[in-house]
Amino acid sequence: MSYVALFGNPNTGKTSLFNCLTGSYEYVGNWSGVTVEKKVGVLRQHGVPVVDLPGIYSLQPLSRDEGVATDFLLTEPCSAIVNIVDASQLQRNLHLTVQLLEFGRPLIIALNMVDVAEKRGIKIDAVKLSRHLGVPVVPVIARTGKGAKELERAILSAKDGHHSRMFIDYGVEVERAIRRIAEQLPDDVPGDKRWMALQFLEGNERLAAYLRDHFDLSPLLAIRKETEQALGCQAAKHIYETRDRWISETIAAAAIEFKPKPLTLTEKVDAVVTNRYVGLPIFLALMYIVFMLTFNWLGTPLADQLDTFFSGPLTDWLSRLLDWAGASPFIEALVLDGIVAGVGGVLVFVPQIFILFFFISLLEDSGYMARVAMVMDRLMEAIGLNGKAFIPMIIGFGCNVPGVMAARTIEQPKERLLTMLLLPFMSCSARLPVYALFAGTFFIHEQALVVFSLYVLGIVVALGLAKLFSSTVFKNESSLFVIELPPYRVPQALTLWRSTWEKGKGFVRKAGTFIFGGSVAIWLLTYVGPHGVGVPMDDSLLAAIGGLIAPLLAPLGFGAWQAGAALITGFLAKEVVVSTMNIIYHVREANGLEQMIAAHFTPLSALSFMVFVLLYTPCLATVATIRKETGSWKWTLLSIGIALTVAYMISFLVYQVGMMFHFQ
Amino acid sequence: MKGESVMIANIIIGGAIFVYAGWVLVRHVKKSAKGTCAACHLADRCSGSCGPER
Amino acid sequence: MVLTDLHKGETAVVVRLAVEHEALKQRLLHLGVKEGKMVRVKAAMPFGGPVMVEVDGQAIGLRRKEASSIEVK
Ligand SMILES: Nc1nc2c(ncn2[C@@H]2O[C@H](COP(=O)(O)OP(=O)(O)O)[C@@H](O)[C@H]2O)c(=O)[nH]1
Ligand SMILES: [Mg+2]
After folding, report:
1. What keywords tag this UniProt record (chain B) (predicted)?
2. Among A424, A628, A662, B44, which is disulfide-ready with B49 (CB 3.0 to 4.6 Å)?
């Protein structure tokens, strides 16, 4: 299968364009490093497979996500390349374009962000640019889909056709080196031999590693060395400068009207949010407002209404339906005490989850995300990480799995590894129902504050451990930080809704599938005992299982089998902690659950329990992702080990210190 | 007659619930073990962290 | 003079990129920070945190240590 591949600098609208072309809803955000994995779709109506790739500045990758794009060129066949070029940043975008032209496949340029460029007083003559580069240039606005049809036509007609005759003369020394290297290359290398030789001379490590698998590189290295001696500088520098001059000429020929105007919106907002003194306080204040909205002002009232509906009208209606169908008591208990309790208990928190996701989407789409990374960098540097690690952490608040994957954009291997290992301490949305349930029962008035503190505790623990590790295990590794700060964009209502929905619908779907299944299984475990069926819950299998670890948990304040059972099932997915609690403590009446829980927990032990759930172990999916991304079981198991130990220690402290001060 | 059809209804409802529950459970565990999280926006398309292993 | 000597809002021309870290230097080049380019300091984070500079209408955040190895005039 031969792909049409989308290449371009980060944050130029590749994914937006991919979504237009294929009708998908991939993840779009206004910062560099949103897409960290290749995504495959199909060109509508034509059945042509299209791939979206992470953004790159050049074909020499500095980080894992960039490596994905280079590897694609080296290992996968492509019938055409669509190069998305940001019209407002032509100079640096064309550096990649040149490299892609040299690769020697049919290429189409999608000139994106023409609206932004125009606002800045830059107008580009697509026809002239096309003539200069020898490839079709199609102006588009990926955000609104303008020009997508024309682009599609251009792709279909260029596909599998000729490639550009564009040629840059790099001067005698380099040209000689190119010829000598090309002679040595086998015939079956991907891409043009000239391209390959140039990339090698530029010091593309990924390509060198690829070639090394096929043959001995020492003659090529010798050629590079000779050339560099003749040039009197690094070949990479020489090639870069030659290209840069060529690009300037191209732009001079094709771009009309340059009258740079400052981006007033961005300037004004930045003057406040990246202010020396108020930058960090503003970030914290915004977070606090988000929590108040999620838990106090908006989310909780909505959740309460849902809860009343589930435990009132829905239960009545279902039980009447079951009666009418003549269901046996067994089925009735299964449905009402198992499924309604388990699934409903999680579904009632949908309002809170959606509100939180809405704000995460807002953060992602506005351009503030990269600023947060910069504002946080000083703190992160002090603990041996860099500001960019904060982005995966924020994504981790939604779900830890994409958070772990987002760590790919971090250049230094050590910082990336640390970020992945500590990411599970970020409180993902699946843990939110647990807080909402317990804080809603025991800390009615301080709910937002308690939950906010839990989120902060997760961050503090992660940062503390990062400090510990970077001053012991990972000593003496240099740290690196450079980040592109995109202009702010006013988020579009539709995009915002879509990305909120895309995130939130997973939660709803999960309730209908896995949590449904889990609830049935858990209810069955409460129904069946080692000595028969229909036993009292305390003699059930679930009690036996939970009882195994209950003594261990007693010093933390929740030594009952119920808590143990809930925590074990929570490893599969953290929402299930709440489902299990609901099924165990289920009484068929409104507010029954909260009374039951209040009878089994004290505010202190509830707090200790929430702390434990926050920290105790990454869920199965996160564990698998850490395993894949680190490529090592050792680090994965370490991550789980650290989590369990830290959770135990902190919950122990919370409970024992609380007891000492007679705080109940 | 009445008793029998009620029995059958019970078996069908119960059976459907258990079969569905078992199926989604197995599927979830299989998918999670590959690194896909059902509650995340990548859920539909993501086949886990499918990047090149190095 | 180096980049960190500039005050907020000041503009200067890059004369030399003496950044040690090779990968970082490549990244800066690709972001458009190179000899002969006008740069403007937009903000500086407190406690020796990163500086925010603007090149070609593109804002970039980088650490003070690296910024101080960029010579300007
Ligand atoms: N004004 C404007 N914004 C755009 C355009 N295309 C994309 N964007 C925005 O640019 C940001 C980056 O888009 P994305 O598709 O994630 O870029 P990628 O990183 O290249 O995949 C998002 O906030 C988009 O809404 C465009 O043509 N005009
Ligand atoms: Mg993208």
Report:
1. Membrane, Transmembrane, Transmembrane helix
2. A628
